[in-house]
Amino acid sequence: MGHTDRFTGRAGAYQQYRLGYPAADIIRTLREWTGLTSSDTVADIGAGTGMLTELFLDNGNPTIAIEPNAEMRAACATQNGGYPALTLIDATAEATTLPDHSADLIAAGRAFHWFDHARAIPEFQRILKPRHWVALVSIGRSKDDSPLSQAFESLLTTYGTDYRYVRDGYRVHDKLESLFPGGEIRQTAIAGEQKLTLDALRGQAMSYSMAPLPGDPRHAAFVNALEDFFQRFSDKGLLTQPTTCWISCCRFAS
C-alpha cells in the first residue's frame, strides 16, 4: 500500500471524528512568526479532508489544496467547496504541479511525515517564494507516561496493522534541523484536551491509517480492545484525553 492509499476507506471517519485544530492559536502564531497576511497564497500540501485548508480559507487566504487521495480530495471539496478562494489539485508533495515561487506559505497538517522528504524538500524550495516559510502543524493525543496514554499506545501497537512504523514518522518535528540545514526553525506546542464518547473514540480510531478496516480479520479484535480501553478509562460516558498541537515554522537557508 502506498502512502497515498493509506486513507482510502477512511475519509468519512476522518472528516467526522478527527481532532480539529485550535484555529485562532495557529493563525496568531503564523502571523507572528511568518508574517502571514490574509492576502498570502497558501499551498496546503497533503490537505486530506481540508481541516487545515479551512483555517486559511477562513483567514481570507487564497488556498491551494494538494491531495493525491481521491476520497480525501472529494471530502475536502465537500467541506470547503463554498469558498471561491479554494483551488483543489490532484498532486503530491513531491510533484505539486505548482509554478516556481508561487506560494507565499507552504503548510502541511498531519501529513509531512508521509512525504518522501528527499524529493519533497526540493519541491518546496521550488514553489515557495524566497525567504518565505514552511508551516508544519500536527495535533493528536498527548503521549506521556500516564496509564491512559501507555494503555492506548499498547492497544495501537498490539492491534494496529503497522503502528510502530507510523509512530516513528510522527517524530518528524524533532528532526527538522536535518531537513532545513542552516535555516530557521521556530516551534511551539499547545496543550488541550478532547472528550470522547465511545462512538467518537471508535470513529476517531478508524480514521487512523494503521487501524484494521471492516473486512480485515483483525478488525473485530481492534474494536473490542477499544471498547475495553473506554470502559477502563472513561467517566460518566466520556473519555478525557490530553492533546498536543505542534506548530513548526521553518525557513530555508538563504
Tally the beta strands.
7
Across the major sheet, the strand order is: 3-2-1-4-5-7-6
Largest sheet: 7 strands, mixed
The H/E string reads HHEHEHEEHEHHHEHHE
What is the CATH superfamily classification? Answer: Vaccinia Virus protein VP39
Separation of the first and last Cα atoms = 37 Å
How would the global form be characterised? Answer: globular
Description:
It is built from 10 helices and 7 strands. The chain is an alpha/beta fold. It has a single domain (3-251), classed as Rossmann fold (3-Layer(aba) Sandwich). Strands 3-2-1-4-5-7-6 form a 7-stranded mixed sheet, with helices on both faces. The radius of gyration is 18 Å and the shape is globular. Mean pLDDT is 89; it is low at 4-9.
Provide a concise account of the structure shown:
With 254 residues, the protein is α/β, with parallel strands linked by helices. The chain is 39% helix and 23% strand. The protein is built from 10 helices and 7 strands.
Topology:
Layout (H helix, E strand, L loop, with lengths): L10 H7 L5 H12 L7 E4 L5 H8 L4 E4 L3 H11 L5 E4 L13 E7 L7 H11 E14 L5 H13 L3 H8 L5 H4 L4 E13 L1 H9 L12 H15 L5 E13 L3
Parallel strand pairs: 1-2, 1-4, 2-3, 4-5
Antiparallel strand pairs: 5-7, 6-7
Helix pairs in contact: 1-9, 6-10, 9-10
